[in-house]
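Archive entry: two folds, one per protein. Generate the first.
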Amino acid sequence: MTDAPAVPPPAGDLVAIVPAGGAGTRLWPLSRRSRPKFLLDLLGSGRTLLQATTDRLLPLTGTGGLYVVTGIAHAEAVAGQLPELPPANLLAEPSPRDSMAAIALAAAVVEHREGPRVVASFAADHVIPDDDAFRATVRTAMTAAEAGYVTTIGITATGPSTAFGYIERGVELPEAPGAFAVARFVEKPDAETAAGYLATGRYSWNAGMFVVRTDVLLGHLDRLQPTLAAGVREIAAAWDTPDRSAVLERVWPALTRIAINHAIAEPVAAEGGVAVVPGTFGWDDVGDVDALAGLLEANDDGVVVLRTVSETDDDAESPGSESPRSRRRLSGCVRRAGDRGARRRRRRSTGCGRGAHT
């Protein structure tokens, strides 16, 4: 990306940070390193996961309050899919340094441009069907963030999943009705432990959604990860200057590679500084082909056609620009479980039985 001037203050009450990264491996061959899942229209809605994410956020942020952090390799595709995104708000990282560096960089750029703001981080590749319920939950989280808490949104668990970490909530916060103190974060449990969590009624899934003031986030980072904090502040100060590229090249590779959960959420929760707002809206991280199949309708044979792609695996066209004639080869199908609970199984073939379509 070229060095660009700062943009005017955003029109909305919130600045949203959308980390858009990943290796494209968990949904292979639907997604690939050159075509990660956030750039794909996996649900056949006419909007990619990235576009659906920004559609959901824009009523809260306005166009000026939307930031996307992505790798250099995907920056052009992201810009092409989001014409409403100000070019100066597309932050291209030279290499992956995990979620803390990406979120902290955007927060530091926002604060350098505008002073302290409430920011929120949401992954580019999650599916949330109820936009209104999502935005209402975010507004509640903003109240807790304004009060000085690092605030997360905990997804109401629909079962004892072993695929997600969990958040244990404590008492409701008087200064932020609808938000609760976080007692602790826990890593992905085994099935028995997960069932025990849900039986208490105090646990929710950790979806990696955070709402926080920039000064609070960067202040915690100053204490807990000082090298990382100093690095992103230095980069942010140079971002809108001709020195951006040189500073990025020098500082970025040395930044600590760590997730936001380990860098900030877990230690600050132990100090009583993290809040959680229960999210009752539907949510899916589309973590594998079975999860994707559960979001799509099956045909008469109980087969779900996941997606069709062009004959050229590395087709550079964006998902929304693929013509029907170019989308001919089936990339994968899943046969749904029957009433007896048979396991879903993936079918690696060029067809998926009667009723399959391209």
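Generate the second and append.
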Amino acid sequence: MTNRSDLENKEELQSHPREQGRSKAEQTIDSLSLVPCQVPQEKEKDGGVGEGPSSAPILDILPTTARNLKDKKWWQLTPEEKKQKKFNRAYQRFMLGCSFKGEYRLITLTTPESFKGDIHKAWRKWVMRMRRRGLAREYFAVKEWNARKTCVHIHAVLRLDYIGYQVAREQWRAVTGACWIQVEKVFSGKGMANYLGKYLAKGYEDNPGQRSYWYAYEWIHRKWQAFSKEMYKFGECVTPAEFELIHSLDGQEERIKYMNWRMICACMDAIRLGRIPEGTVL
């Protein structure tokens, strides 16, 4: 893996006359091509999940990945470990989306007891109506049932600096018949993650086999989930420094080109170290 110290001279390399006229991804790949792939070293843990003492919160504090190279298989996990793993993954994906520049809004959408439709279909319809008006883009949503299990609420974080409250309320009323919504500005990403964690815990207890959160395709970089999964198969985890590097590349095509190159390097390194037998179809 590439450490932050290996990228200190990146600006000097890009300013070289040979680098002029080339894309940022190509310059980055060439500047790192001589750096050997390294097997990440696991830090010792005192207990709990992630780094930190056993009194760590239920959500993982590592934002770049919810996977651990020494994880047990899913069927080997206890119910509590399965719950923790689901929370880690939700936290990781939420925090990656919060790393993008811009303002964020928390919107709470309720439904009346008379609403008997599918909450997911209602949400998609509401998002499409808001996107046509330019009032909704990327989002991360969590659903919650009320105490009597008679109606469901949605708590969603939207990446935008303004949302028309009256328009949002009217469109939600047209979809579900509800007449009350609430909009608040998000000031802390980690604080909001722990706030949503309450509803994730409640949803897991109500329906252990169902996921109670979802997010827009654009919430994280395109192809990021597949990239992280493949790197894990090759025995590597994406470090915070590498995510910052990918995040700094200009344009979607530049990021995909770099991620493809990294997966090729990780695959070759895995074959060299014997983690993947030669001739294996990937």
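Annotation attached to the second fold: The chain has nine helices and five strands. Residues 252-272 form the longest helix (21 residues).
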